[in-house]
Amino acid sequence: MPHRQRGSYPKNWPMIAQHIKDEADWKCQRCEHPHDIEAGYVLTVHHLDGDKTNCAWWNLPPLCQRCHLTIQAKIVMNRIWLFPHSEWFRIYVAGYYARYFGYDDSRKNVELNIDFFLTLPHADPNSSNTHRYEQDAGDLPT
Looking at the domain assignment, is residue 41 inside a domain? Predict the structure, then answer.
């Protein structure tokens, strides 16, 4: 079920959005098209979880308006994913899983441990990965 938009943009939202776009070299993370207003590719910053107050890096992919509208309300971060994540989405959902399970969700840590975070049982407490999570508890990233 799609999520509803929540919250209000923080006062420094223009600075946050500018920073996200600058870090992405003004290209869409999904289709990699550069910001080009005349061609209809306006770069935006999307809140994946729908919460405008959540400005964690993993919640804010820079997306062209076309991609933003395509995925708007279709991504539900705590959903059980049946298929592998799209390449562009992997880092963002791994960051979400890191936060969800109480790990260091800094981009550096998530990039270093992305495969680990993507194997966590995420939203499904009955996941077959649960035993792996408990078994490897001593070797988990910080």
Answer: yes
Is residue 81 situated within a structural domain? no
Mean pLDDT in order along the chain per 10 residues (142 residues): 70 97 98 96 95 96 95 82 88 94 96 94 49 37 50
Query: Which DSSP symbol is given to 50?
Result: S
Whether residue 99 contacts residue 105, with contact meaning beta carbons closer than 8 Å, is answered with yes
- Distance in angstroms (rounded) separating the CA atoms of residues 26 and 35: 6
In this prediction the pTM is 0.80
Look up the domain containing 65 and give its range: 13-71
Distance CA 98, CA 142 (A): 10
For 11-23, letters b (16+ CB in 10 Å) and e give eeeeeebebbbee
28: CB partners within 8 A, 6+ apart: 34, 41, 43, 62, 63, 64, 67
Which residue, of 71, 103, 119, is where some domain finishes? 71
**Angle (CA) 15 19 22, round 5°:** 135
Which of 43, 71, 99 is at the close of a domain? 71
